[in-house]
Design goal:
It is built from 11 helices and 15 strands. With 324 residues, the chain is an alpha/beta fold. It folds into 2 domains: 138 residues, NAD(P)-binding Rossmann-like Domain (Rossmann fold), CATH 3.40.50; 173 residues, NAD(P)-binding Rossmann-like Domain (Rossmann fold, 3-Layer(aba) Sandwich), CATH 3.40.50. The strands form 3 sheets. Strands 11-10-9-12-13-14-15 form a 7-stranded parallel beta sheet, sandwiched between helices. The chain has a 6-stranded mixed beta sheet with strand order 1-5-4-6-7-8.
Amino acid sequence: MRVAATPTKLGNMTAMPLLPHVAVPDDSPPVLAASPAFESLKQIAAIEYFDTLPGSTERLIERIRDAAAVVNVRSSSQFTAEVFQHSPRLRLLSIWGTGTDHVDLAAAAKHGVKVASTPGVSAYSVAEHALALMLAVARRIPAQDAAVRQGTWPRGQGIELRGKTLGIIGLGAIGRRFAELGRGIGMRVIAWTLHPDPALGFDLVEFDELLRSSDVVSVHPRLSKQTKGMIGPREFELMKRSAILVNTARGAIVDEPALLQALLSNQIAGAGLDVFSTEPLPPHHALTKLDNVVLTPHSAGVTPEALDAGLKMAVDNVRIFFAP
């Protein structure tokens, strides 16, 4: 669907402003179309809008080949070298979200395409969600809720987190905020990050020491070649048998088969997961059969507050880029 630009009056003449052609190839399920940011985008761009996923490289190219800018909503759209090669007019890729693991950044640079994202806007929402997952696993909230609904009255199944050790992997905006929340409920916080900075004010430890010492391990780095599969069989062997894993970052950071084995064998006590290797999680997936796991549908950053802030920033990035 093409959204027409609004005409402007020039004396007695009506002229169509020379606005950049912006494609939105993947607003599915729709979040941008119903937002104030979309109305704002209409004022600065001629929009080619799609509320379905492209589903293939060829279809993505079809949708953006004439665009000067793309507002990318879903990370399932893969911006490969082929996509950039066949999008000769493209100058800006504005991503709603923090991660760029679905973008070939080298190819973008080669073809003169600037890549912008929305860092930090969902940090509070994701950190709060990580806290909710941690508490839900520790206190076995879903299982106890289900039991009460079924007429039973289980008690004494949860653990207290005050005084326990929270290990944060990755000290970006989300990791830092979750560390603050952990401290707020009385946990001891330790951290490991790819770019250690003592000025951040956290107790930084070696990676293996974090795994050995933590009662909760929470995953927050960006997905990259360096972090893909960084939590695998070896790492689960190092963790406490009473430990809880929380992942609100990217599914591929954790080796999913190794996680399943660790949960099934009680190598670790439980997990709170918002992200998965395959999304949506396939029906009857092995994780859905485990009672020591709490699952959510990659929704940690999908709150009205975070949506509005992120979409506004994605549109503002377009506005700033094309400003005279």
